[in-house]
Design a protein that fits this description.
Strands 1-3-6-5 form a four-stranded antiparallel sheet, with no helix packed on it. Strands 2-8-7-4 form a four-stranded mixed sheet, with no helix packed on it. The chain is built from two helices and eight strands. It has a single domain, classed as Immunoglobulins (Immunoglobulin-like, Sandwich), CATH 2.60.40.10. The radius of gyration is 20 Å and the shape is elongated. This is Lipoprotein.
Length: 142
């Protein structure tokens, strides 16, 4: 009786994981194939001096080269004079000439998609979005 009860709990737990994530199959949820933005400290910029730095993502338990950034959003403030773009499918490039000093905090949110899909039209993802906070500090030597 006790083994049957434990097995029921495991099955219910697996079903909850499957239902509460965007997994295509239960095995995807167990494997936890998902994107992750790489943590890094963005370099400090200098007022009125061109700036460039990158943030990359990687796939956890998957081949990063099989996926690309399909959408990106930034919440918070980038330094005035900065823009961002996706390059090489998995790199977010920040570029610009800062026109104001300060510390700028923002959250990057990305969604990824596979370059190819399985025969059933799905990717092997257990969630295709991720977010992480970053900071860029701009100093003024004038």
């Amino acid at each position: 009786m006790k083994k049957k009860y434990q097995l029921s709990k495991i099955i219910i737990l697996l079903l909850l994981i499957f239902i509460t994530t965007s997994c295509e199959t239960i095995s995807d949820c167990i494997d936890r194939i998902r994107p992750e933005l790489i943590s890094k400290e963005l370099r400090t910029g200098v007022y009125d001096v061109p700036y460039e730095d990158n943030v990359n993502f990687e796939m956890i338990r998957g081949n990063t080269n099989d996926y690309y950034i399909s959408s990106i959003s930034i919440e918070g403030k980038l330094p005035p004079g900065f823009n961002y773009s996706v390059v090489n499918n998995n790199t977010i490039n920040f570029k610009g000439t800062p026109i104001r000093d300060g510390t700028y905090e923002f959250t990057i949110s990305i969604s990824v998609s596979p370059h190819t899909y399985n025969e059933d039209g799905t990717g092997d993802l257990c969630g295709n979005t991720t977010s992480k906070k970053y900071t860029i500090k701009i100093i003024d030597y004038r």
